Amino acid sequence: MTADYKKGFADQTKVITVPSLEVEGVIPDWLSGTLVRNGPARFHLNDKTLNHWFDGLAMLHKFDIADGHVSYANKFLDTPAFRAAKDGKMKYAEFATDPCRNLFKRIAQIFTGSASGANANVSIGRVADEFVAQTESPMPVAFDKYTLKTIGIVSYSDKLKGQLTTAHPHYDQDSHEAFNYLLNFGFKSTYQIYKLPDGSKRRQPIGSYSTDRPSYMHSFGLSQNYVILMEFPLVVNPLSMLIRGKPFIANYQRGTRFSLVDRRRGEVQYAHTDEAWFGFHHVNAVDRESKIDLDIIVYPNADVVQHFYLNSLLNKPDHETYPKNELRRFTIDVPAGTVSSRTLVDYSAELPRINYEQCNSKTYQHVYASGVAKKGESPFLDTVVKFDLAGGVKEWRQHGQYPGEPVYVARPDGQSEDDGILLTVVLDADANNSYLLLLDARDLSEIARARVPQHVPFGFHGAYIRS
What we know:
six-stranded antiparallel sheet, 6 helices, 7% helix
């Protein structure tokens, strides 16, 4: 094992445009579109080194694919946080780094919604006719998909309020609506679940409920009938968050619950389990009569959050391995309010994707992810992995190569759920640059790669935009 993965956490401040990348292999003629990736690219300011992988300044990366050719461009997201950092300063709080130690200033920022520098470094989505970068602050930042130029923070045409959301809204292909929630902190905090129809900037409330101790959730589940909030055993006392003077995530403590919000009636039901899991990414949720199967990559506890502090990542001994996790199915008996669970795949992985256009909230078979060598011997994600829920695991892995999230693109008129291509950005640690990798989603055989003349820092999520 080596520590060469650490190059993925090095700052990338060089902004370039490359009209045509060197391509090895043959890109299928039918693949025509744009992959936009999002993630942190700068961790060092003049007055501070940011604490956590999730804190870095957002950079967009664009791969245009057409006629067998690939172009590349990158650009920082031009946000209040980025503009402050151009002067070498940190003005706004991030996930695990907070420059503010004044109690009254913290209270004012949180309850007026001014605490965020809109450093939307997590995912890519769409609001009405605008493509947006997203994070856990409810302030998506619109950008031009052709130039990557920042347009600005999106203004919704409603009065819904909250200080926290998820960077993973769910889109229903049948109803043409996106679903998400807002968390409004207070002495009694409130989850407001909403939907956003295609072409609209007016969020429509579905249902809400209150809690004394809100949970940190990076994503949620969506079935045909329910929005499912799996409230992990990582909860916060909002008053404590205000007065302790610690970064956002450092305030969270333990507690647990499943909350099921009926998509049509807004009614809220609860289910409980004594199991103390933690997870970032839900994979899928499927209704089965009076039960729900909720699939999620889970860790035994929330210690994984500590694993992603930069000090830990960059000073990790070579023998230390990536935290163990698994793909687990939680079966919720809705009338009884009980939960049972079982392991689907015992293999450590993250950043999971499925064929969401076909299978979101529906029965599915295949999961793609960035994983850890099958024996769990790597300190960081080094494998593209495919889980077949009917049985079997396939891998793509090469020494010194560190792939990110695999984005699934279906072949036109494909005959099966996995008839398509995976697009993933891979760090080549030996060459100190990155490349776009194309894999056959059926067997993970390599189709082609297009090399970028510099490294792309480890990011989080992306979206494929069809031409």
